[in-house]
Fold this sequence. Notes:
The complex is a heterotrimer of chains A (315), B (411) and C (301).
Chain A: H1 31-43, E1 47-51, E2 70-73, H2 79-95, E3 106-112, H3 113-119, H4 121-129, E4 134-140, H5 181-187, E5 192-196, H6 201-211, E6 217-223, H7 227-230, H8 237-246, E7 253-256, E8 259-262, H9 271-275, H10 291-314
Parallel strand pairs in A: 1-2, 1-3, 3-4, 4-6, 5-6
Antiparallel strand pairs in A: 5-7, 7-8
Chain B: E1 3-7, H1 8-18, E2 23-26, H2 33-45, E3 51-54, H3 58-71, E4 76-79, H4 81-86, H5 88-97, E5 102-107, H6 121-125, E6 132-135, H7 139-154, E7 162-167, E8 175-179, H8 183-189, E9 207-208, H9 215-247, E10 254-257, E11 264-269, H10 273-285, E12 290-295, E13 297-299, H11 303-310, E14 315-320, H12 330-339, E15 348-353, H13 363-379, E16 383-387, H14 391-406
Parallel strand pairs in B: 2-3, 4-5, 5-7, 6-7, 11-12, 11-14, 14-15, 15-16
Antiparallel strand pairs in B: 1-8, 6-13, 10-12
Helix pairs in contact in B: 1-2, 1-7, 3-5, 7-9, 8-9, 10-13
Chain C: E1 2-9, H1 14-27, E2 31-37, E3 46-54, E4 69-72, E5 94-98, H2 103-109, E6 115-119, H3 121-129, H4 136-146, H5 151-164, H6 169-185, H7 211-214, E7 217-218, E8 235-239, H8 249-253, E9 259-261, E10 267-269, H9 279-283, E11 289-293, H10 294-300
Parallel strand pairs in C: 1-4, 4-5, 5-6
Antiparallel strand pairs in C: 1-3, 2-3, 8-11, 9-10
Helix pairs in contact in C: 1-4, 1-5, 3-6, 4-5, 4-6, 5-6
Amino acid sequence: MNWEPPLFQDLHQIPREEHVFPGAPLCAGCGGLESLRLASKVLGPHVVYVNAAGCFTNLATFPFTPLDASWLYTTMGSAPAGAQGVRDALDVLIAKGRLPKEEDVTVVVLGGDGSTYDMALSSTSGAITRKLDFYYFCYDNEAYGNTGVQLSPSTPYGAKTTTSPCAVQRPVGATQEKKDIFEIWRAHNPPYVATVSPRFPLDLEEKFVRAANYRGPRLFLGFAACPTGWLFDPAHTPDVARLAVECGLWPLKEAVNGEVVHTHFPKLSPVEDYLKLQGRFRHLFEPIVQKEAIAHIQDRVNTYWERVKQTEQKS
Amino acid sequence: MTAQMMTGNLAAAWSARLADVDYVPAFPITPQTEIVETLAKWCGDGSLNARFVTLDSEHSMMTAAGAAAATGARVFTATSSQGLLHAFEVLYTVAGWRVPFVLVNVSRALASPITLEPDHNDVLAARDSGFVQIHAETCQEVLDSILMGYRIAEDARVCLPVVVNLDGFILSFTREPVVVPDQETVKQFLPPFRPAHLGFKASAPHALGTAVTGGATYSYFRHQIHLASVNALRVHEEAAVEFERLFGRRYDVAEGYRLEDAEDVLVMSNAYASKGKAAVDRAREEGRKIGLLRLRVIRPWPAEVVRRALRGKRAVAVLDQNLSPGQGGILFQEIAACLYHEPLRPRSLCSFIGGLGGKNISEGEFCTIFEQMEDAGGRGTGVGPVLLYTEAEHRDMEQLQFLAHELRTGR
Amino acid sequence: MLAIRFHGRGGQGAKTASRIVGTAAFLEGFVAQDSPIYGAERRGAPVAAFTRMAKAPIRERGIIAHPDVVVVADASLMGDPAAKVLEGVDGKTILFVNSPMSAEQLSAQISARGHLTTLNLTEIALQRMGKRGAISALLGAVAGRLVGLRQESIHEAIARELAELGLAASVIEQNQDAAKYCYEAVPVVALESRARQTVPVALHIPAYESPTRGTAGITVGPNSGIRSVGGWRTFRPVLRPDLCNGCWLCFANCPEGAITIKPDGRPAIYYPHCKGCLDCVEVCPTDALTVERETEATSKT
Lengths: 315, 411, 301
């Protein structure tokens, strides 16, 4: 696998033009919005965003929208099917000469992790299997955020949510492991799957440019640091996002036609650095340090990166 | 135009073909599957220039249907029973988008217990979604109602999806003569779909289905769906006039059968109304002045038409092929409500529940209905809800229970 | 019955304040009722919460249209039409505003009916609790004082409500101390009894409109920028151009797009679009971005 030299080498290459405009009623310091804004700079204005129920439902709240693109709110479980209907209809109308080709738009699903990892999984799996030509942008804040931060299948081990509280019976909070949606997508063999973080804006922009070379289902899993749900001051959104990557918990990678390449090799700082920044992990440190739980998180990160080194250094 | 033998399902598929639809999102479910199988074949061989896509569920299918209509395509889709309920939240969602398309529901009773044969709890569950509902009695009416459905749905005064209901098995798998209109005449009736207010395109971005905050804003938009649905009464009337002019068949929101001089009236809907008409004929031969009112458009509710049809009658029996547990018949309630302020309202209003899970309604059962209705009319009291379920049927039931619970056969 | 309406921004504690007063009233033997209302708005956006207390069963539900007391957690809400702070406020309403200004100074700036009273809760919170964050206990104490609840019951109610939120005992104590201070410091205005005459309102019968206007759609986007979100801020980022190296990290990392690049390639903050998350300050490698408290910053401009 040849790693093309990146187009984006300098922050000054980030387009100045905005397509997600200010004024959306999302939380201050929303990491999801940060990613979407950067993504839209590559996607451009000729887009229809097909939205699943989630925090981003608030983006377009009557009578205001921050988008210069189109928007269709669907349901929590069927945004990819909405994308299917829109894409198919556009194709048919263009083929029948009822819509000029230059009027075509790119179809982009917006879904949170709650929708992406569970409820819309059938709908997503169907769309990938049908080779639907669309982007799927997941803003992953590792909880059902819009309903007030409940356990989602993306919630990582050790995180406290309102439905995985730190309790006597279960002092670590969430005991599940974060579902690996990247691999679930990859198993469907789509042309392009990537993780991104807004704290790595060049990597993010680069991946959206690369994805444009392919047709078919393209996933972007966006790290969405969430001050409201993860209990940290909004000013720390960039730090949380940076440490998620540098501690190895949020690998930046892509898979082109199934072949995985990591686009950033982190320093692998101790996971504590990341965990300590957030209230949702505070119970791992106070009133007593839950060493086993922290070690468990560290072990999984270590195992992951050892495997990466073995496979990617071989080739 | 000569008739040919075809099932209700084939008639539905033919109608989609005549409407020259652009897009068919599909998902199989008995007893609807034939419709999408037929359309898949026609899309494949080019006799219908549309894209056919099998979705992963009815929930997805209904979303894709609404989204494609919102993009500007003419869409046809079909489902039944559990499928309709699986898509339930989407029915409300797409009605709120105000997108026109036609959904065919092939009625089938709802689980549990799971079964295959029809009653109308599935389609009536969707009555508050905003979909216009047309219920068909014959295979011909299935074909014709879908064409009328597109015309109504796409009218700027309505802009709502339409569901056309036909009974599973009783119509879906039953062949009878159906006239297939010629394509050119259909085009006169149903001009090409070129909605000004729909479509996602680069030059005219817009947001659809946005969130609202505050009850007043929500009230306004929800009420617009109501006004649109009410408009469908007039639009249906116009479509009926034009349809009759072009095709010679007339469909009103409700159909009166031997009503004019009737003293007592049986109210029904869907395919078993044919049996009801036969029962009326038999009663007439005996000199009993009974007529029948068949409800065809259930949403919007044609209150005025129903009121006029039933005013001055002695007794009215509503035969619901559905059951709202803890209440009774769904249509009975709606009939009762619209007669409340009628000064000449019937002396007696009777409620019968029949044909659940596709159970046959025998001649004898109709006879019993008429007797009880006439009796009640004489007394000026109501009856019911009475379940149509015979002594003989119960003897069979007891035998089944004996097998299920009592007979020990060993291994 | 007394009706208290709280206005705040998401995260300031208006909802918890309404519960503190509700619990305090309950502890004193009143029939009490409290409830929040959420828009689709988030931390920093206007929210409201309601407390009712009475000697008899309360036959009211939902929003408070005619408040006896209005408690405003953030002075910037006064100028935010979405917050509807003054709705239903009449000559007898007591209007408390968290502000560094005295009631006289503030009344010169805003035209509100009712009796105005103020206290600088933000300053008290910063001094006694040491960080920006929720001021629910302080709001509750002020409201409790204005409706004549006892300090002890407010004290106990704060303990109960903040414990429910999972706050540490030491933090609860800090809150109680600060609240006690506010309880004693807030200038009290006597409650006046009020009688209202209710008259029928005119109903509008909507007509059918074209599907474009008749459904929840927007055809003139992007238009969200016409709403200022500047009021969401407690702190603002301030750019010192002389220290800026023009790296664009702040531009890249602003979730809102409130930082634009000028023709000379340098960033500029457009404050009406800045929610005050301060992400730009954190990413700035040259300390060209600094933090100022919103009241200080506005008094300078």
